[in-house]
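Give me structure tokens for this 606-residue protein.
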Amino acid sequence: MLTLQNYEYTVGCICALPLEMAALSAMLDEVHQKPEWQYSHDNNNYKLGKIGSHNVAIVCLPAGVYGTTSATKIATQMLSSFPSIKFALMVGIGGGVPSAANDIRLGDVVVSKPKGSSSGVVQYDYGKAVKGELISGGVLDKPPQHLLTAIARLDAEHMTSGTNSISEYIAQMLHRFPSMTQFEYPGSENDQLFEAEYYHIGDSITCEGCNPDRHIPRPQRQSSQPRIFYGTIGSGNQVIKDGMMRDKLARQKEIICFEMEAAGLMDILPCLVIRGICDYADSHKNKLWQEYAAATAAAYAKELLNTVPGRPVSQNISELSDRAGSFRSNTTMVEDLNAPALPSKTFMIMNRLYPKEDISLASFITDRRYPDQDALIVASTPNQTLDKMAEITLEDGRDFSVTADKNFSEFIAIQTKSNASLKKAFSKLFLLPMFEVDGDMQVFAEESRMYTLRQPQTLFKRIYENPSTRSRLQSFCAKNKKIHFVVGFRTLINARFIGKETRSPQFSRLPPQMLGNPLYQTTGERVYAICYRKVNLKKLSSGDGALSADSDWKGFWDATRGHDNEDNRVEGFSVEIDEENEELVSSSDAWNFPSENGDEQWVGLS
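Here you go.
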């Protein structure tokens, strides 16, 4: 079996029951080895493999746990370990809503499809009933466009050919796995639809005691090939086992299928819901058709993935392979790439993401709001081609260190739920200023890194000994400019932002397509926070006591090259760098980020 890197998996498949996972796993064209690593707080157990051109990660909800909340947790954990996943398929069983317009039978497949204002999945309840009626809920995100175009193509092909590949794929599955006999077609004689108002008799799991006169007569199908229906799927935290309630909810929301997990996914990850019909969501429901319905849903998922074009992974796989071993420990929050000697750390979160090559360690910034403008760059790293004229080249491991976080995404997910100011600070990195996030948000990245100077005071001495650097700093001083020394910054690699909902309090007439539930992605390595030290630079004369100060953080140079002024006093400049930037530490918007080397403090940029 192949072993692939986590970043090579681009499709997530989520099941609620083991029998659903079994059916989908049996549809894999290739089976891969288990993941080489998992995020420390990811408790999922994955089945990995390939369908068509897609590397797929399959996961099942914990045994005995159902509902939208569980699905939300599963999806969030999966994204933390498989950050390249582009979309998810929710594959499993559901309760059908037969009608004159939709002659849904047991074993057929229902696929979520937007219609009008509906996204294709509607949350019909909040998990409680009032006076015997379920309270209706909200509308969720639409499936991604490339999945909608794929199901449109499949629908057209099935219309012209008059058939689909579901039975063929199930036959292949039964041939490869002879022990899966329970997934065979149960037969049309076991497909019984009763009147909605007629309730099941007794406690028997079969309908042998029910009155056959209350059957709804339906014409016999000429083929056992499952049919596929597209429409709205109702999702909630209550099992629907009442024909009258089923029909009432179906009329209100135009629902053709009921299930219990999809609503927990739609706002976390672009998702399409595929359900094999195992019962009619009435009191006569039983488990006879569950395995076969799971197989029909899995077979449709395979046919769909064979239709969706494969998409390349955004980061070079060979580069990620070099770091694979570093992720195998599930207990370490921060991976130490080259044994840093870290200074005290207060990171200022920026108002936007900056390409890493635009920000330089050991540079001097005059305006912290725009760290890429009017910066005095005196040092560069070997891969920063833009800084070829810098006086000093910083060597990785000697002059600066790099650490990789493992708890970044979870920290953001947890803290932003209760901390509005932190959520606002991170939203500004991805959204335009007029937008605000209303509800939960997630920030995922293939990796979060921290770059820090190892010996900032020693490096600063080397820098201010350079005549050209001294001249520029003196110029800043003469213009009364504030100067800040960059001693570290934090980055995200291929970051993805998922917001629950956006609103625009400032601009109410923005077009609808600019509102809704945002999902933004960036490519490459981007700087989101910078650690500064304030430079205190002032003009002095020989009578000032500061000239005799002896500190690693202080320096003095003769500005007159030996010429005395009228008072026979030598003039010069004193430079001092604050060990801790007090104006940042005292900020009201400050958050502690836990790391292996002690808590960091994050502050917002005012």
